[in-house]
Amino acid sequence: MKDSTCIYKYKNDEIISVRNSTFSVKSFKEHMHRTFSIGLILGGSAEVSIGDEKFNVSSNDVVVVNPRQKHCCNPVPDSLWSYYMFYINENWFQKKIMEITGATSGNQKLLHKVIRKESLVTKLKLLYKLILSNAAVLEVEEKVYSCIEMLVEHQDLINLENSKKNVTEAIEYMNEKIEENLSLEDISMSVNLSPYHFLRIFKNETGITPHKYLINLKIISSYNLLEKGLSSAEISYQLGFTDQSHFIKTFKDFTGITPGQYVKSVSYSGSGP
Questions:
Q1: For the segment 67-109, what is each residue's pLDDT rounded down to a tens digit?
Q2: DSSP code of 103?
Q3: What pLDDT, on a 0 to 100 scale, did the predictor assign at position 12?
Q4: How far apart are CA 56 and CA 49, in angstroms?
Q5: Distances (CA, A) of 99 to 92, 103, 124, 139
Q6: Which of 87, 172, 195, 211 is the most buried (most CB within 10 A)?
């Protein structure tokens, strides 16, 4: 049994991409995504940490992770596991939640982290097949919509409208200065807070420190740079890593594969209408 990871970006990449890992033994450090992430366990067992909660999951369990929520999913010791991980555009997902629930705010958070429902498993498997078969955009969107409906049925939603504005502005600042080695003082001054107060509200809002968040942002940014053909040396310089080795090690810590393996694993299901 060979460990295999493939990442498929659907032709309308603004909406969805999916990662397929089979017979995986890879372990990940805590990380985050900008998307809503929906994981379907296909086989084996894993230990999942989302925020401060921990779960054991196995075949046909569905794992739900909100955008910018720290998490890690690793196989139980001495075992293999297989899974699909769907990454769905946050803005698109939020709009669909508003349509389904009638909510007036597009800033909702899903609370239930693990769902066990056979019909949802069936829909997610079909969605995966549609993405790989280069199905029409409308068909894929309809299936995603159907999956979201089922997810919302099993969720309590909380409105994050009153989330700390300073944290949002700090994240925007980190994105703008992503190539720099920012200090805590740099970031806190950008939102006119003391380093201590800023660190406290940032950790309360995101679950991780500003440093870990910035490293996550750098790794997320590196995906597009790798797909554009930049070398690890170029990316390490552009994103402010100490050197190429530092970038490669950090990338593998967060993704479970090297930058070179990531490039080889990415494929597009099509670019037609």
A1: 988 899 888 888 889 999 999 988 888 888 887 777 776 677 7
A2: -
A3: 56
A4: 9
A5: 11, 7, 21, 18
A6: 87
Contact between 108 and 160 under an 8 Å Cβ cutoff? The reply is: yes
Give the three-state DSSP class for 54: strand
E-assigned strand segments in the chain: 4-9, 16-24, 36-50, 53-58, 62-65, 71-75, 81-88, 108-110, 114-115, 157-159, 266-268
Pairing of strands 16-24, 62-65: unpaired
Percentages of the chain per state (helix, strand, coil), in multiples of 5: 45, 25, 35
Rounded to 5 degrees, φ, ψ at 9 are -105, 115
Parts of the chain with a pLDDT under 70: 1-8, 10-14, 105-106, 138, 155-164, 267-273
Residue 78 has what pLDDT?
Answer: 81
Q: Domains plus CATH for the chain?
A: 4-159 (2.60.120.10), 165-267 (1.10.10.60)
Rounded distance, CA 154 to CA 183, Å? Answer: 41
